[in-house]
């Protein structure tokens, strides 16, 4: 049985794989806690605190819709402890003649193997807002 930090890192890695392949059911049913809170910074259509698996999944669907399916993430590394996992990644996509290509950090809180809270921290929030708005 892996230690909790290793299990959290592996859960987040599986979550990224599911996101990239559009396996939103896996995220909803296996990774997300029923009371998950997802924090998106900024002033854009995806910004705010999204509560519950369905609300979080809805932001993912909207993100894909806004970018005509071009949004993707490239996972660089995952760091983890018994309570948290942090993904270091790069987001990219195209929207209305604009492009996005920037690194970000994704801070996650885990409890009992489930993702309970997440924060997306963009390198340049102004660029992200301009891209999504």
Automatic annotation (TrEMBL):
It holds the Pfam family SnoaL_2. InterPro entries: NTF2-like_dom_sf (IPR032710), SnoaL-like (IPR037401). It comes from the Bacteria. Gene3D superfamilies: 3.10.450.50. Residues 13-117 form the SnoaL-like domain. This is DUF4440 domain-containing protein.
């Amino acid at each position: 049985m892996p230690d909790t930090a290793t299990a959290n890192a592996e859960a987040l890695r599986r979550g990224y794989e599911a996101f990239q392949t559009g396996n939103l059911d896996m995220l909803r049913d296996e990774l997300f806690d029923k009371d998950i809170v997802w924090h998106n910074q900024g002033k854009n259509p995806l910004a705010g605190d999204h509560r519950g698996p369905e609300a979080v999944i809805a932001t993912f669907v909207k993100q894909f819709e806004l970018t005509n399916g071009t949004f993707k993430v490239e996972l660089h590394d995952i760091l983890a402890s018994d309570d948290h996992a942090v993904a270091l990644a790069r987001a990219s996509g195209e929207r209305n003649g604009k492009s996005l290509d920037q690194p970000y950090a994704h801070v996650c809180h885990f409890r009992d193997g489930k993702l309970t809270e997440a924060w997306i921290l963009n390198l340049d929030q102004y660029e992200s807002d301009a891209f999504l708005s």
